[in-house]
Structure formats: structure tokens, C-alpha cells
Specification:
Number of strands: 14
Distance between the termini: 61 Å
Strand content: over 45%
Shape: globular
Oligomer: single chain
Length: 293
Amino acid sequence: MAPAIHAQDDLLDMLESEDEATAEPLPVKSTWKTMKLVNLHTTEMVKHKGLDFRVTHRFGNIGEPSGGGPHNLWGLDNSADIRISFDYGITDDLQIGIGRSKYNELIDASVKWRILSQKTKGMPVSVVFYANGAITPERDPDNRYDDWRNRMSYFTQILIARKFSDRLSFEVAPGMLYRNMVERVVDGEGNTLTDEHTNFVVGLGGRFMITKRFGIMADYVQVFSEFRQNYKPKNYYPPLGLGMVVETGGHVFHLTLTNAPGIVANNYIPETTDSWMDGGMKLGFNISRVFHF
């Protein structure tokens, strides 16, 4: 009797192995909870005919050395930036979006295209292309915007992400920012320095889910800029963000801390001048609601 049972088990194991070997690889889903970490975009996208309405808020600096402290309730009386945005899924792999930010009154239009999807077998990562064009319609008291093209900036990025497990996801995001108008300054030694029109960056981001609905996340953006290294009167710092993810039914809340004042890359890449060491971090939150048509 025993040999017959062993033979049956061996046959079932062989059949299961054959099923696994011949099964079609499936796309890996839910690498991230939403389309952004703290500062970085993720490879997550709005589904076909879905509309993502998002409110992103960033308060003022928390620490007293950076202008925070008890008299403005550690930055809660101020707002560094507020952004309202809409993103629409044309297909599951292509979306467009528009947004308006308080910082520089920036209006941006974006496109996001999924090039590759991570699969259960074969493809190890997801790859998404992101690009935007932005214009600042802010007032011009010193006539710096004598040509409307001076108000324009553009950002492109490749997002490469992998979901290692249900808890851990990681992302690498090289990108490039181009601004038509840049700052020209004279340093303390009388040298004239001009900011770069083009800034190359590399972003790193990750998320770890502690429970099914609660997790932590972090991202970091390294900006490659000789101007920022050589211009001593003003200090520039890489944007660094930490945050919590809370999922409650149809909503996903992000509670964040970052030294970046702007929410859109066109603002935070060239203009992060606050340091975590001086209390220059800002409390913020993202609220997202997706509608389907």
C-alpha cells in the first residue's frame, strides 16, 4: 500500500512542476500604493478610464533655525506649497495629467507611459517613462520674464522599480530637468556664476509595508550641479523625504516629512535650500481619490 501512495505523490509533484513550468508569467501588481512616494513618482499608474484627483500639501519648516518653532506652530501656520492635480488613464499603460502648484504658481501638464511590466517570471522590473512641461504665470515685478519662454521648464524621468515581496519595493529614477531661464549671481569674491540650464538627477525610493494597510517609505534625489557646489552664499541640499502610507478603503493617505519646498520636480530639484540638520523639514500629506468613468 505504501509504495502505491508514494507513487501517487510523485506523480502529483511532477504534474505541479509541469504546470509551473508551462504557466504564462503574470504581471506583478501593486508595487506601490499610489503614483508618488514623497517627492518621486512611482511606476504606479491610473487605470483605463480612471481619474485620479489629488491634493498635496506641504507646510513650513519645523525647526527654529530654519524659521519654524512654536510661534508658527512648527511650520503648521505656513504652507510651502499646495498642489491640486488630475491624472486620467487613456489606457492601462498611458496616462495624462494636469496640475497647479502654489510654488511659483506653476501649471504643469504631464504624460506617463509604461514601457515594461515586472512579471512573475522573466521580466524582473517595471519601467515607466514620465515627462512634463510647465509654465509659471507669476507676476513679474523685475521684468525677468521679458520673454514668455523664460517661464517654461521641462522634466523627463525613467522610473525603474521592482517589487521584491508583498512588503518591500524599490525604485531607481534617473532624470533630467531643463529650464529656459536660470539664475546668474555674483559670489563674495566677485565671480559671476550662472546656474545650469540642464540638471541631471538620480532618485532612489523604497517602501516597506509593516501591515497590509500601513507602511513606511523614503526617497532621495541627488542633483548633479557644479553651480550648487561652487555658489557658497546659498546652500543647496539634495531633496530627502520620509513618510507613512495608510490605506483606508478607497483612500490612500501619505503623511510626509521632507526638506523640499516644492512638490513638482521643476521646483524642488533646483530650489531645495533647507537642511534637515537645521530643522528645514516640512510636514506634508497627500490625499488621493480615484473615480472611474
